[in-house]
Amino acid sequence: MAARIAGLAYLVTFAVVVVANFAIFSRLSVVGDAAATARNVLSHEGLFRTYLALDLLYCIGGVVLLTALYALLAPVHRSLALAAAVSRLIFVLTWTLTTVLQYLALRILHDPHFLDVFTPPQLQALAKLFLGGGGETYYVGLPFYGLASTLCSVVWLRTRQIPPWLAIWGVIGSGWCVLSALAFIAVPNFERMVNPWLYDSPMGLFELVAGAWLLITAGELGRASAGR
After folding, report:
1. Which residue from 1, 145, 20, 161 is spatially nearest to 85, judged by alpha carbons?
2. Mean pLDDT across the stretch 25-37?
3. Are 162 and 213 in contact (CB under 8 A)?
4. How far apart are CA 224 and CA 220, in angstroms?
5. Is the pLDDT confidence value at 226 over 60?
6. What is the largest CA-CA distance in the chain?
7. In 3-state terms, what secondary structure has residue 32?
8. pLDDT 10s digits, 123-154
9. CA distances from 81 to 48, 95, 155, 185 (A)
10. CB 65 within 8 A of CB 8
11. Is 223 buried (19+), middle (13-18) or exposed (0-12) by CB count in 10 A?
12. What is the pLDDT, as a whole number, of residue 32?
């Protein structure tokens, strides 16, 4: 059961975050234009609120995923499974903070009391800062996400729950994610040296394949566990 839940959570959370950020948020946020972004958010408030709800659904899915992975991997190595669960929880909390900041941006744009202190362009710039703040909180949380995936992959190397080649891919891709995310924070202009899309893409592809593998082979894993 844990394998099936983990596999489903991997795939569902991936789909949710793609829809939220690429099908909705990218349509509303205009790079370098706070006024246009504010107009888009206010004129498509229902769509923006759907985006926020999907972000929260992603966080809920993250909690389900870390719980299922802990149940699946703790019998193999409890300490590493626990460290992975805590690391993934920290990432979920940073993503939740992102959602809070973006919800505050909506309040800033709506609340007339802010007009007593700020001019409309200043409010739009402040709202844009909160809306764009997802990037900062994401990259602060990303090393923890990569660490969680790395630790899970290390434990999977000791099991037959996923193929060894897939577990090795997870160790390398997720470890690279940790290093590149830390470099993004520590090294000025690192994003000009290495495209940010390359930070988490290998890990993301690994988790998609691992999720599909766990979901497809969940019955076999259950029978193997029962046999032991």
Report:
1. 145
2. 89
3. yes
4. 6
5. no
6. 70
7. coil
8. 888 888 888 755 778 999 999 999 999 999 99
9. 36, 21, 8, 27
10. no
11. exposed
12. 81
